[in-house]
Amino acid sequence: MAGYLFSLNNEEALISCINRGVYSTILSAPRNNLWNIAHEGTFADYATMKEGDNVYFFIRRKIYGIGTLININGNCKFLNYPDSNNPTNVEYDAIQETLLFDNGDNSINNRFLCTFIPDPVFFRKGIDMDETLSSSPDKFKILRAFWKLSFIKFSDEENQAFKDVILRRNIEAIGNANTENTYSSSYNEFHTAIAEKTNNNTNYNLDITPFLSSIANISGSIRHEMAVEAALLFQLSIGDNQTIETFGDWDYITHQVIASPFKPIDYMDKMDVFGYKYIESQEPTISHFLVVEIKKGNANANDILQLMKYVDWIKNEYAFGDYSMIKAYMLAFSYSDNLQTQLSNLTTRKFIKSARPPESSEWDNIQLIQYKYNDERGRLDFEVVEAS
Description:
- This protein has helices at residues 11-20, 37-47, 92-95, 129-135, 156-168, 187-198, 209-213, 225-237, 241-247, 301-317, 339-347; strands at residues 3-7, 22-23, 54-59, 62-69, 77-79, 112-118, 122-123, 127-128, 151-154, 182-183, 252-258, 270-278, 286-299, 326-335, 349-353, 359-363, 366-374, 379-384.
- The chain has 388 residues and is α+β, with helices and mostly antiparallel strands.
- Helix 2 runs parallel beside helix 8.
């Protein structure tokens, strides 16, 4: 399963989250009835959460865990109050009765939340960031770029490395849920209250429509690339048929994944969308990797070359030198003339599979996809750009 590391300010906030079995990010208020890129990115992170993903907390260089996301009425992430994904400001008194997570006046800025349980427990002994990184340096990739973020998502392999170091340092506390070495939790009480309010009530469901409708152009293009990114992740996560038919079904999806050697965070290249799928019934063995490069407007040959940098990175860092494991997509509103006819020259890769005798192979598994906002569906529609 994937893992999430949430950043908190102090132990008081940690105790509150664990006691409730709820985490909710504080967002800045929307301005001029519009979401900004940071809001859209946070929505994208919540959209891909799944029951069974693990939960950790980060406070002042130390990491605390372990929890697991759990469904309530079929979901593990919710709007904190009806219409909280609309970019409008409300008064606390007006929405207090509908809140799933009541954090006082600040609750109006707790727009989204997720629900979790201790699993096996949350240990009081926090693990220093340096100790965590040194415990398995080859497996920690995303953690090294945890900077100026409320939380991050990381893959199964990195998640297991988190579990390993935390469990090894807390062996004596495993199986003891009510000791001085663990945090207690009253999550049942809070989860029951959430269940009562969300039962047969779709007003608490996350939805991408308010993020798209407010910045959609008449042509069907979207003014923020991050909103296109969030829409793709959301639609893949909910199993939107048209989206799955275009991009496939993936077991793990995320965004803004590092795709360059380690350097100052602000200068790192990041893949817009990254994912993978398992060989059926053989988890955690991966069969294919996904990469998507997104342009809100027109895409040209340089954008394809940028995508190919990510393809080469995945081949080296994840796919053991095997290009055939990678499926790549360029997603844009429009494309430069004749780009489809140039595609093969820009993207073809020849490689040798390690075998006896060596096997020569050729990779050209990239598709151009065009998006357009569908006002009736409140979703993005996708269409494969065919060769002219």
